[in-house]
Design a protein that fits this description.
Blueprint (H helix, E strand, L loop, with lengths): L3 H10 L2 H9 L4 H17 L10 H6 L7 H8 L20 H12 L3 H21 L1
Helix pairs in contact: 2-3, 2-5
Length: about 130
Protein backbone atom coordinates (compact mmCIF):
# COMPACT_ATOMS: atom_id res chain seq x y z
CA UNK A 1 0.00 0.00 0.00
CA UNK A 2 0.89 3.65 0.13
CA UNK A 3 0.25 6.65 2.33
CA UNK A 4 -2.22 9.49 1.92
CA UNK A 5 0.29 11.86 0.28
CA UNK A 6 1.33 9.29 -2.30
CA UNK A 7 -2.28 8.38 -3.08
CA UNK A 8 -3.22 12.05 -3.44
CA UNK A 9 -0.20 12.72 -5.65
CA UNK A 10 -1.13 9.79 -7.85
CA UNK A 11 -4.74 10.97 -8.05
CA UNK A 12 -3.51 14.38 -9.22
CA UNK A 13 -1.22 12.84 -11.86
CA UNK A 14 -3.33 10.11 -13.39
CA UNK A 15 -6.42 10.96 -15.42
CA UNK A 16 -9.46 9.51 -13.65
CA UNK A 17 -11.33 9.79 -16.94
CA UNK A 18 -9.40 6.75 -18.11
CA UNK A 19 -10.91 4.71 -15.27
CA UNK A 20 -14.36 6.06 -16.08
CA UNK A 21 -13.86 5.13 -19.74
CA UNK A 22 -12.85 1.64 -18.64
CA UNK A 23 -16.11 1.17 -16.76
CA UNK A 24 -18.30 2.75 -19.44
CA UNK A 25 -16.58 1.10 -22.41
CA UNK A 26 -16.95 -2.33 -23.93
CA UNK A 27 -13.54 -3.55 -22.78
CA UNK A 28 -11.67 -2.96 -19.54
CA UNK A 29 -8.33 -4.19 -20.79
CA UNK A 30 -7.12 -1.19 -22.82
CA UNK A 31 -8.12 1.66 -20.49
CA UNK A 32 -7.04 -0.18 -17.33
CA UNK A 33 -3.68 -1.01 -18.86
CA UNK A 34 -3.30 2.64 -19.90
CA UNK A 35 -4.12 3.78 -16.34
CA UNK A 36 -1.75 1.21 -14.84
CA UNK A 37 1.11 2.21 -17.17
CA UNK A 38 0.59 5.90 -16.44
CA UNK A 39 0.41 5.31 -12.68
CA UNK A 40 3.59 3.26 -12.75
CA UNK A 41 5.37 5.92 -14.84
CA UNK A 42 4.45 8.64 -12.34
CA UNK A 43 5.46 6.49 -9.38
CA UNK A 44 8.88 5.76 -10.88
CA UNK A 45 9.76 9.06 -12.59
CA UNK A 46 7.51 11.71 -10.93
CA UNK A 47 7.56 13.91 -14.07
CA UNK A 48 5.07 16.45 -12.66
CA UNK A 49 6.53 16.72 -9.15
CA UNK A 50 3.13 15.84 -7.66
CA UNK A 51 4.54 12.70 -6.06
CA UNK A 52 7.29 14.72 -4.28
CA UNK A 53 9.77 11.90 -4.97
CA UNK A 54 9.89 8.65 -6.89
CA UNK A 55 8.41 5.42 -5.55
CA UNK A 56 10.02 2.65 -7.63
CA UNK A 57 9.35 -0.11 -5.09
CA UNK A 58 5.66 0.79 -4.98
CA UNK A 59 5.53 0.89 -8.78
CA UNK A 60 7.04 -2.61 -8.95
CA UNK A 61 4.65 -3.94 -6.31
CA UNK A 62 1.54 -2.61 -8.08
CA UNK A 63 -0.39 -5.78 -8.99
CA UNK A 64 -1.85 -6.22 -12.47
CA UNK A 65 -5.26 -6.61 -10.83
CA UNK A 66 -5.12 -3.06 -9.43
CA UNK A 67 -7.35 -1.12 -9.62
CA UNK A 68 -10.24 -3.54 -9.12
CA UNK A 69 -12.96 -2.80 -11.73
CA UNK A 70 -15.66 -3.48 -9.14
CA UNK A 71 -14.21 -0.77 -6.86
CA UNK A 72 -13.97 1.66 -9.78
CA UNK A 73 -17.63 0.99 -10.54
CA UNK A 74 -18.61 1.68 -6.93
CA UNK A 75 -16.97 5.11 -7.20
CA UNK A 76 -18.38 5.82 -10.66
CA UNK A 77 -21.92 4.72 -9.81
CA UNK A 78 -22.38 5.01 -6.05
CA UNK A 79 -25.47 3.64 -4.36
CA UNK A 80 -27.50 6.60 -3.16
CA UNK A 81 -30.84 7.05 -1.49
CA UNK A 82 -33.48 8.43 -3.88
CA UNK A 83 -34.43 12.00 -3.02
CA UNK A 84 -38.05 10.91 -2.52
CA UNK A 85 -36.94 8.70 0.40
CA UNK A 86 -34.83 11.30 2.22
CA UNK A 87 -36.28 12.54 5.52
CA UNK A 88 -37.59 16.09 5.62
CA UNK A 89 -35.39 18.16 7.90
CA UNK A 90 -36.42 21.26 9.76
CA UNK A 91 -34.39 24.41 9.38
CA UNK A 92 -31.89 24.79 12.19
CA UNK A 93 -32.60 27.44 14.78
CA UNK A 94 -30.58 30.63 14.79
CA UNK A 95 -27.63 30.60 17.16
CA UNK A 96 -28.05 32.41 20.46
CA UNK A 97 -25.35 35.01 19.83
CA UNK A 98 -24.64 36.27 23.37
CA UNK A 99 -23.97 32.85 24.96
CA UNK A 100 -22.02 31.80 21.88
CA UNK A 101 -19.79 34.89 22.15
CA UNK A 102 -19.28 34.29 25.85
CA UNK A 103 -18.42 30.64 25.23
CA UNK A 104 -15.91 31.56 22.51
CA UNK A 105 -14.25 34.13 24.78
CA UNK A 106 -13.92 31.62 27.60
CA UNK A 107 -12.87 28.68 25.44
CA UNK A 108 -10.47 30.44 23.09
CA UNK A 109 -9.47 33.39 25.26
CA UNK A 110 -10.37 35.89 22.55
CA UNK A 111 -10.65 39.58 23.33
CA UNK A 112 -13.98 41.26 22.58
CA UNK A 113 -12.54 42.92 19.47
CA UNK A 114 -11.57 39.53 18.02
CA UNK A 115 -14.99 38.03 18.85
CA UNK A 116 -16.80 40.94 17.20
CA UNK A 117 -14.56 40.83 14.13
CA UNK A 118 -14.98 37.07 13.71
CA UNK A 119 -18.71 37.15 14.32
CA UNK A 120 -19.04 40.01 11.84
CA UNK A 121 -17.35 38.00 9.09
CA UNK A 122 -18.51 34.46 9.97
CA UNK A 123 -21.70 34.45 12.05
CA UNK A 124 -23.69 37.51 10.96
CA UNK A 125 -23.82 36.55 7.27
CA UNK A 126 -25.32 33.18 8.24
CA UNK A 127 -27.88 34.84 10.52
CA UNK A 128 -28.88 37.31 7.81
CA UNK A 129 -29.07 34.60 5.16
CA UNK A 130 -31.22 32.46 7.46
CA UNK A 131 -33.63 35.37 7.99
CA UNK A 132 -33.80 36.17 4.27
CA UNK A 133 -34.53 32.60 3.28
Amino acid sequence: GCGHETALGLACCVDAGVLHAAICGDSLDGPLQQWWDTARYHLVDDPTGQMRHSHPALACSLPDSFPDPHIINLHAQPAVTPITKLPILQSPALPDIAPLASFVQQLLGWESKKVISTFHSMIWPVVVLHEVL
